[in-house]
């Protein structure tokens, strides 16, 4: 998830009615546009406008039941965005690059790589993050990658591109949307240096 996606998310919440919509949908069952309009004392057209902004930011999704559309909060997106913000906030407080951590990183990369080829995917989380981050650092952070292009890139390091691609997403190294992958800012990456 790029920084601009985080900004877009918070902009979508910059209206008190949109925040109220998210709170209503979080605390109750899914609601229709008509029910939301009644609850907030606004017109259905106003609800349509707000829902468009919230859906565009990924906060809301809809499900149809016969002729009625019901809205739901996309809790996973909310959790991701809130976690990303906290990562940025905490970043300034952590000095994770010490001579010891840099030496450890160099040792892990030497043990797991033969030239540019990854011998095996580490099972220990700390070592795995070092290896994954090293691979992602070889990508252009300003480029969007189709899944097939990313697979070809990963294959230059290791044949199990599917596992590595999944790990990139799981550890916030990359963001995926509609089959397109982007490198997250390093401030959002999981910090292996804080692991024991």
How would you describe this structure to a colleague?
The protein is α+β, with helices and mostly antiparallel strands and 196 residues long. It has two domains: 74 residues, Arc Repressor Mutant, subunit A; 100 residues, Arc Repressor Mutant, subunit A, CATH 1.10.10. Helices cover 54% and strands 14% of the residues. The protein has nine helices and eight strands. A three-stranded antiparallel beta sheet has the order 1-3-2. A three-stranded antiparallel beta sheet has the order 6-8-7. The chain has a two-stranded antiparallel sheet with strand order 4-5. Helix 3 packs across helix 4, helix 6 crosses helix 7 and helix 8 crosses helix 9. It is elongated, with a radius of gyration of 21 Å. The model has no long low-confidence stretch (mean pLDDT 88). It comes from Aureibacillus halotolerans. Keywords: DNA-binding, Transcription, Transcription regulation. This is HTH arsR-type domain-containing protein. GO terms for molecular function: DNA binding; DNA-binding transcription factor activity. InterPro entries: ArsR-like_HTH (IPR011991), DUF2087 (IPR018656), HTH_ArsR_DNA-bd_dom (IPR001845), HTH_MetalResp_TranReg (IPR051081), WH-like_DNA-bd_sf (IPR036388), WH_DNA-bd_sf (IPR036390).
Write the layout of secondary structure elements.
Layout: H1 3-12, H2 16-27, E1 31-32, H3 33-40, H4 44-56, E2 60-65, E3 68-73, H5 75-91, H6 99-112, E4 113-114, E5 117-118, H7 125-136, E6 145-146, H8 147-155, H9 161-170, E7 174-177, E8 180-183
Antiparallel strand pairs: 1-3, 2-3, 4-5, 6-8, 7-8
